[in-house]
Amino acid sequence: MSNLFLTSDKKSKKAFDKIVKKSSKAIQDSLKSSAAYSGLTPEELKKVIFTENILPESGHGFDETLEEVKKKILPNFLNVTSTDYMAHLHSPPLMESISSELILSAFNQSMDSWDQAPVATEIELQVVEKLCQLYGYDKKGDGIFTSGGTQSNLMGITLARDWFCNTKLNYDIKALGLPPEYNKFRIYTSEVSHFSVEKSAHLLGLGYNSVVKVAVDSRQKMDIDSLRTSIETDLSNGLIPICVVATIGTTDYGSIDPLEEINELCIEHGLWLHGDAAYGSGLILSSKYSSRIDGIENCDSITIDFHKMFMLPISCGAFLLKDTDNFKTLTLHADYLNREEDEEEGYTNLVGKSMQTTRRFDALKVWMTFYSQGRVNLSYIISKSVDNANFVYNSLLKREEFDVVTKPEISSVVFRLKQDCEVNKRVRRELIHKHGIVIGQTVLKDKTYLKLTLLNPLLTEKHLDDLLDLIKSLV
Ligand SMILES: Cc1ncc(COP(=O)(O)O)c(C=O)c1O
Questions:
Q1: Nearest-angstrom CA–CA distance, 76 and 401
Q2: What was the pLDDT predicted at 369?
């Protein structure tokens, strides 16, 4: 049982060093080509990874295990750092953030209570304070790290629901559960918003029916007149609007809803405004494009994802709240974990602001990356992806064999070959299995579209033009 853990013992440190070095070499050796994927089909993959028994009576030891990983798994990973990977909001991880992952796993801090994460708690608080400043919140602003956009959106809609019940209905939902009129609650979001809005409504007991999908304009942004009409019609029918979820960067198009006008409507009707900036939050660091998300500071809560535009490893998200008092709805004291007296004595137990109990120290990745790269580099990285999307858009406009949906606001371009949907689908599959190139696919008005999500700043204009030539040649 020696060397089970990394300890202060010399032998244990030596064993750790060996494991890290061997893993690092295996990772590097596996990166043999620039392709995004080995090309294996699901059937072929199943054969390659077949292992008689993954729980043998006697273990095989690290070296033999790593050999298996080298043979079966590493060559078949999707290579997210490849410039041939352009499918999803799924980024290559910046180098120093991989070091952060190693450090945070080695020390395995848990963010629920101060006594499980003393310095990590203080660092998360420091990062959250910086984020509040960046996104324009004042001293009442607060936040917490989350597993990503889905959890942050669930938190936003939960707090919106509870705030509405507490302040507008004078009803203690935390103690009593849903109020009698709960099935009249309505949440407004655009028809191209993320499906986690509906998922949240379901989990909160409000059901999909509570989500009103507001029409978008030709640029895929929420149409403000449709929003106003929906709210007013619902009010006149006795329904109860509680919040608007504005998308600050839609998953497919990167379109940004009109935040100023939506905020005015929310103020007029006393609604909570949640900003889903899982995608668009990265623009804040771009000196060239940050004004595209002006108005984000008016949101009552904001979803931020660091595992998208910020290029950090999964998982890494945050939820920001304009008024820290609204976190109270999530706080419940447990004698073993987060005693009330701790707070009075200056020990912060972050579990009081989170849906999770045990939680990773993901804030370290933001701290280390911000500090290491600095604003100028991060601005370049993020601006480059938007520049690349503009380039592809203009290139598509010049090519008559393609249709393109809209001018990108962030870094995604949705387009199609002017051919049958089946041809577009076939071309995408051929790119994956014959060329190791992975691009996205979506549907608009019953037609199949192709999608480039351009997060990787190493992509060049030549690379993108060559890809469009290749797509054309596959028809
Ligand atoms: C706009 C938007 N919101 C929320 C999410 C969900 O984020 P996550 O995958 O981090 O849970 C996504 C994911 O792509 C997204 O694009």
A1: 34
A2: 98
